[in-house]
Amino acid sequence: MAGSVGNLIEWYEFGVYGFFATVIAANFFTPEGGSALEGLVKTYASFGLAFFFRPIGAAVFGRAGDRIGRRPTLILVLLLMTGATTLIGLLPTYDTVGAAAPWLLTLVRILQGLSAGGEFGGAVSIMTEFAPPGRRGLYGAWQSFTVALGLLAGAGTAAVLATVLSEEALNDWGWRLPFLLALPIGLVALWLRLRLEETPSFRATNAASTPAGPVASRREVARAVVLGAGRIMGWAAAGYTFLVVMPSYLQATLDATFQQALIATVVANAGFAAAILPAGLLSDRIGRRPVMLTGAALVTVLAFPLLDLLQDPGSPALARGVAVFVAGAVVGLMAGPGPAMLAEMFPTRVRYTGLGLAYALSNAVFSGCAGLIITEAIKRTGEADIPAYYVAATGALSLIALATLRGDAHRGALREEERPTPRDETEEETPCA
Asked: 23, 111, 137, 405 - which has most CB atoms within 10 Å?
């Protein structure tokens, strides 16, 4: 819980931002007489910009976490994340301060991007380094599970507010409430992290006067980071397309109401949550490779049929519900084993930095830009199938990268100081002493 609670806050906020994208666009990016779709594009541009600061945060906080420890670094990251999220709920809008409003919002989003970049690597390092033998997949899956919990919490909060508040009140001040709720959640998270101990792997490695084996070069780490990012790009793209961008897509393109879009997103996230822990557990038994390859293949094959079903006005409500549930579940097949797979690619001395950078880079390119790419492409082409093209293409590329995974990489101990290798299927894994 201490390891994954920060991730819950991060994805709660990113979910709320995505779910309220049309409201935020109206308040911060759409001056009087401006186009609603143009405002939405600018909102997603700010959204995507924050993602490009994630790799910077992953590098800065990752280096700190690999040098001074996972625990103190994660506490600092949590404080920054909670403060930035709460601040969004206090920002003045375009009507109040004019053109300064979108810049203020973007600055706060940058702070969130930095903190989010430092969160994943430390949290996954904590959970996988504490995991008992044969349970890294399940323990690491909790990080992805809190993604689902955060998105569900954000969607649930948005749905409640959309139900109890009038549209005028929601657009005026109601949208601020979900961001302000991050403060009490963050205080609980801080209490949990202050009780956290440092991991045995870090203590053992930090206490050693000399490395236990050949130290990885920067080039080797960089190659492993790029491969790791490629392996999870399908997860990143499909996850954000199906779980976050969906509400705005349904409203802007298929004329769904705000409530209908949120219900669809809740169902998709429920499918996502339902698949994550079983997928992580299954990967401990049969390996990360077959589980993640299955998820990437299903995402690639099902992208167009699922979207066609949503677009068909004659589709029964139950069929649409099953479609979005399945969309979330196939993403969960990749997200469950994904954290453990990344942790197993890097030795202890660079694990926080390496897996954090791989995750941050993949999310910066394929998650943070998903809303911007999809919305702008639809605006320019009028093609409603753009989300399916995007998901299918990234899923196919992810399949190629995942094919390099070793089938038995889940059985050994986490690496201590042996070199990370981008060709896992050709190198013999050396267990730690």
From this structure: 137
